[in-house]
Write a structure and sequence with these properties.
The chain is 31% helix and 25% strand. It contains 14 helices and 22 strands. 48% of the residues are buried. The structure holds adenosine-5'-diphosphate (ADP).
């Protein structure tokens, strides 16, 4: 099983002739809360599920709740959740007709999507070509420029060397941000305020990109000062129809990583939503996008917005959209993959929802990961409160993966009520045995600036956490 790619496609289910066919069994190529999230929807749709897991995850709830489970390797992701031959073998032996990749791991791996196709197994997501077009940030930007979507002004291509970079930065005007074309998770990005610091920052960004992505291709953008990160959820079917499902506000970030998301954005106006929604649809239509996806924008204080990148998968924060438009996005993904048509109708939030990411991290020690055994756990409950998690009392958080252990989502009629509900929910969310981000969220919910809705992506840079209780 380990010797590279399996050979020869297996003919099981032809989607070309059998488009409306219901999936019988879906393999979930992921772990943690998202694997469980997909299993839940499959159950409701009458679809059987196969979990894959590493030896470190044998006790995880996604393994327990799936109809079948296959161990695909040892703890290290590269040997298990990224081990394509083993995952394909697991799909083969269990007779799965489709694979849901979740987020992270292989979700934006075009080769994986292609291999699924070769095996006659439907990849629940966009086509390999769509993933490739959006996966490389420079190609994505030029596709958007051609589609008439506003993008952040920048170099328009890879920078050959420091000299060219300095010349371009002068033209764009400082501050600029240098980014890795293969970047993700906030890595490989550096803000440069003046020419004197260009070379040092350039070298650091290159090294970081090389180490993280094995690709040191760098490009330059204008650094938009005090922007908001606002993204538009879209959905497209196999017949070219694309619609949008409104926005998510994701400006509460620590080192470019999202911690809290909400919908609607407190900065949104009906006019801006119309414009950003139209741009997002244009972006999806430009590549005939199939599946659910997200168009990420930066929005400046004058409400100018610029395309930043597209995520061609379900996102962690899809839950807030589900809460405000009352639709199951995983179900939409599966229906689209089965060949169903979407109506083409756009959606506007009818409620307010906020998500707090509960990570096993010590917020008083620079958010250092805090893996270990959860000795006791009481999750928040009650009206308008949702918790998506794979953990339970007695569960040991392995040190090998992402530190997110739960998502706490609250929904109410107004933003103010939603924040109050979140405060109440955080009070009763008790995790003992490991440190979590709950103390941070409690502080944030009380913060006047957060409550006023007037913040930008740099908000947490000078946020005072106080001292540990
Ligand atoms: P990644 O793919 O690593 O997550 P993104 O391109 O999505 O990187 O950017 C992540 C975050 O970095 C954004 O949400 C924003 O806070 C910041 N950022 C990225 N590009 C710019 C820019 N041109 N100007 C200002 N901030 C930016």
């Amino acid at each position: 099983m380990d010797g590279g790619r399996l050979v020869g496609p297996v003919h099981r289910l032809s989607f070309a002739v059998n488009r409306e066919k219901m999936f019988d069994k879906v393999l979930i190529a992921n772990r943690g809360e998202i694997a469980l999230r997909v299993i839940r929807t499959c159950r409701e749709m009458g679809i059987k599920t196969v979990a894959i897991y590493s030896t470190a995850d044998a006790e995880s709830l996604h393994v327990r709740f799936a109809d079948e489970a296959v161990c695909v390797g040892p703890p290290a992701s590269k040997d298990s959740y990224l081990n394509i031959p083993r995952i394909m073998a697991a799909a083969e032996i269990t007779n799965a007709d489709a694979i849901h990749p979740g987020y992270g791991f292989l979700a934006e791996n075009a080769d994986f999507a292609e291999i699924c196709g070769e095996y006659g197994i439907k990849f629940i997501g966009p086509t390999p070509m769509q993933i490739r077009m959006m996966g490389d940030k420079i190609t994505a930007k030029s596709t958007m420029i051609n589609a008439g979507v506003p993008v952040v002004p920048g170099s328009g291509g890879l920078i050959a060397d420091v000299k060219e970079g300095i010349g371009l930065a002068k033209g764009i005007g400082y501050p600029v941000i240098i980014k890795a074309t293969a970047g993700g998770g906030g890595k490989g990005m550096r803000i440069i305020w003046d020419e004197a610091s260009f070379e040092g920052q350039w070298n650091m960004a290159r090294n970081e990109a090389k180490a993280a992505f094995g690709n040191d291709g760098i490009y330059i953008e204008k650094y938009i000062e005090e922007p908001r990160h606002i993204e538009i959820q879209i959905a497209g079917d196999q017949y070219g129809t694309v619609c949008h499902l409104s926005e998510r506000e994701c400006s509460i970030q620590r080192r470019h990583q999202k911690l809290v998301e909400e919908s609607p954005s407190p900065f949104m106006t009906p006019e801006l939503r119309q414009k950003m929604g139209d741009a997002a649809i244009k972006a999806g239509e430009a590549i005939n996008y199939e599946g659910v996806g997200t168009i990420e924008f930066l929005v400046d204080k004058y409400r100018n917005f610029y395309f930043m990148e597209m995520n061609t998968r379900i996102q962690v924060e899809h839950t807030v959209t589900e809460e405000v438009i009352d639709h199951d996005l995983i179900k939409e993904q599966i229906k689209i993959a089965m060949g169903e048509k979407i109506s083409g109708k756009n959606y506007i939030p009818e409620m307010h929802a906020i998500e707090c990411r509960i990570n096993a991290e010590d917020v008083y020690k620079d958010f250092r990961p805090s893996p270990g055994k959860i000795v006791s756990l009481h999750t928040a409950k009650g009206h308008g409160v949702r918790v998506d998690t794979h953990v339970y009392a007695g569960y040991t958080i392995p040190p090998y993966y992402d530190s997110m252990i739960a998502k706490l989502i609250c929904r109410a009629r107004t933003r103010e009520e939603c924040i109050t509900k979140m405060e109440r929910a955080l009070e009763e969310f008790i995790v003992e045995g490991v440190k979590t981000t709950i103390p941070f969220h409690k502080k944030l919910m009380k913060d006047e600036r957060f409550r006023s809705g007037n913040f930008h992506t740099g908000f947490l840079n000078d946020f005072d956490l106080g001292t540990e209780d």
